Amino acid sequence: MVNIKSTIAAAAVAGSAMAAIQPIVMKGTKLFYNNGTQFYVKGIAYQSEVGAEQRTIAKRYGFEPDPTASIIDPLADGAQCTKDVPLLARLGTNVIRTYAIDPTKDHSACMKLLEAAGIYVLADLGNPSVSIKRDAPAWNVQLFNRYKNVIDELGKYDNVLGFLSGNEVTNNATNTDASAFVKAATRDAKAYIKAKMDKGHRWMGVGYASNDDAEIRAEMAQYFNCGKQENAIDFWGYNIYSWCGKSSFQESGYDVQVKFFANYSVPVFFAEYGCNSPGGAEGRLFEDTLAIYSDQMTDVFSGGIVFKFQQETNDYGLVKGGTPMKNFKVLESQMKKVDPTIVQMDAYKPTNTAQACPNVGTNWKVTGNALPPTPDADMCTCAYNAAKCRQIDDLNVKDYGVIFDYICKADPAACAGIKAETDTGVYGPYVMCNPKEQLAVVLDAYYANQGGRADACSFKGSAQIVSNPSTPSSCSAKLSAASSAVAFAATAAAGSDTTGGGSGSSDTNAAPRISGSSLAMGAWVLGSMAVGAGMIAL
Question: What is 201-252 written as a DSSP string?
Answer without folding.
Answer: PPP-EEEEEE---TTTHHHHHHHHHSS-TTTS-SEEEEE-----SS--TTTT
